[in-house]
């Protein structure tokens, strides 16, 4: 059949509590549209009660060609892999693994995916980030790689924000990232171009915002990594003020677009993948 790939892909997502992940359908639907058959499986290590080592070995034995890795395995998978891409190595987190001829190579498409969704205007600007956990790690790397002039990171755990700032400075060989206390947030936001929420605040289980949105002005650019819901209180209030915004689909879809290319060598259509992502939320009302 013309345009139809004879190669089929067996892919999977490994993590805890991932039954509602929208990543499998993004890949399967994109593969369908490209005439490139993809079967994408959920491999929940919590339900299976299996270690990451066992699951990775089984995936290799069963002929999986690619895996996405999520919480809590993004760090612990690293020593199990044969090769690590430099970006993933420098932030010590892998979310994508390619399996070829029994060899495994790890990548981080959270970084590149968030990076591809950033607007060009942030280059040369000051940005404040709240949240220095797993998502914050990828966000901070992507912001600095995108050329921000200065990045201030705050977290309710101040040690975490300082540690992340040190790690990103040394990973990228710069001195432009600083960990700050929550008490310095208002002043820092006032002096910034943009603000990124990389905390769970805004999710149904964590209602509210991670900072007082009355500190925003219409000239601020505001990004939220939370994607359940896509329309968070932060984004709603920022838009009402007239701020430009980037919602959590930027990273969630961007990571899948980059993983799709790594898995299949094909360029995914980001708009179609975003549609597949949003459609699942509408169907489930989350
Ligand atoms: P995490 O637990 O690793 O880190 C969250 C960090 O936020 C912690 O360091 C915590 O101390 C800090 N924090 C929490 N509430 C805070 C507050 N009010 N003020 C300051 N700091 C606060 O979690 P994570 O894996 O980084 O996930 C964070 C959010 O990002 C979640 O909502 C998750 O769903 C979302 N996420 C989105 C994507 C995406 O693709 N869009 C990817 C990964 C995670």
TrEMBL record:
Record-listed NADP(+) binding positions: 131-135, 225, 248
SDH C-terminal domain segment(s): 248-276
GO terms assigned for molecular function: NADP binding; quinate 3-dehydrogenase (NAD+) activity; shikimate 3-dehydrogenase (NADP+) activity
Classification via SUPFAM superfamilies: Aminoacid dehydrogenase-like, N-terminal domain, NAD(P)-binding Rossmann-fold domains
Family: Belongs to the shikimate dehydrogenase family.
EC number: 1.1.1.25
Protein name as catalogued: Shikimate dehydrogenase (NADP(+))
Annotated Shikimate dehydrogenase substrate binding N-terminal domain residues: 13-97
Source species of the chain: Corynebacterium poyangense
Biological processes, Gene Ontology terms: amino acid biosynthetic process; aromatic amino acid family biosynthetic process; chorismate biosynthetic process; shikimate metabolic process
NCBIfam families: PRK12549.1 (NF009201)
Subunit and interaction comment: Homodimer.
InterPro entries: Aminoacid_DH-like_N_sf, NAD(P)-bd_dom_sf, SDH_C, Shikimate_DH-bd_N, Shikimate_DH_fam
């Amino acid at each position: 059949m013309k345009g139809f790939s004879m190669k089929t892909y067996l892919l999977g997502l490994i993590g805890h509590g991932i039954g509602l992940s929208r990543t499998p359908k993004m890949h399967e639907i994109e593969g369908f549209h490209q005439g490139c058959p993809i079967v994408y499986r959920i491999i929940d290590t919590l339900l299976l009660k299996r270690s990451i080592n066992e699951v990775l070995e089984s995936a290799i034995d069963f002929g999986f060609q690619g895996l996405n890795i999520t919480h809590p395995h993004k760090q612990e998978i690293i020593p199990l892999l044969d090769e690590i891409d430099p970006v993933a190595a420098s932030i010590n987190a892998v979310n994508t693994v390619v399996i070829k001829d029994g060899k495994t190579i790890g990548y981080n498409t959270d970084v590149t995916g968030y990076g591809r969704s950033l607007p060009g205007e942030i280059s040369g600007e000051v940005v404040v980030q709240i949240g220095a956990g797993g998502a914050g790690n990828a966000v901070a790397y992507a912001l600095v790689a995108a050329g921000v002039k200065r990045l201030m990171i705050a977290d309710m755990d101040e040690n975490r924000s300082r540690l992340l700032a040190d790690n990103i400075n040394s990973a990228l060989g710069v001195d432009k990232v600083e960990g700050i206390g929550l008490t310095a947030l208002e002043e820092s936001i006032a002096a910034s171009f943009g603000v990124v929420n990389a905390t769970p605040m805004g999710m149904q289980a964590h209602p509210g915002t991670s900072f007082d949105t009355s500190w925003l002005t219409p000239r601020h650019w505001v990004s939220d990594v939370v994607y359940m819901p896509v329309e968070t209180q932060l984004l709603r209030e920022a838009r009402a003020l007239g701020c430009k915004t980037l919602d959590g689909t930027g990273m969630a879809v961007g990571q899948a677009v980059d993983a799709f290319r790594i898995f299949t060598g094909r360029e995914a259509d980001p708009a179609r993948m975003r549609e597949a992502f949003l459609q699942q939320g509408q169907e489930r009302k989350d």
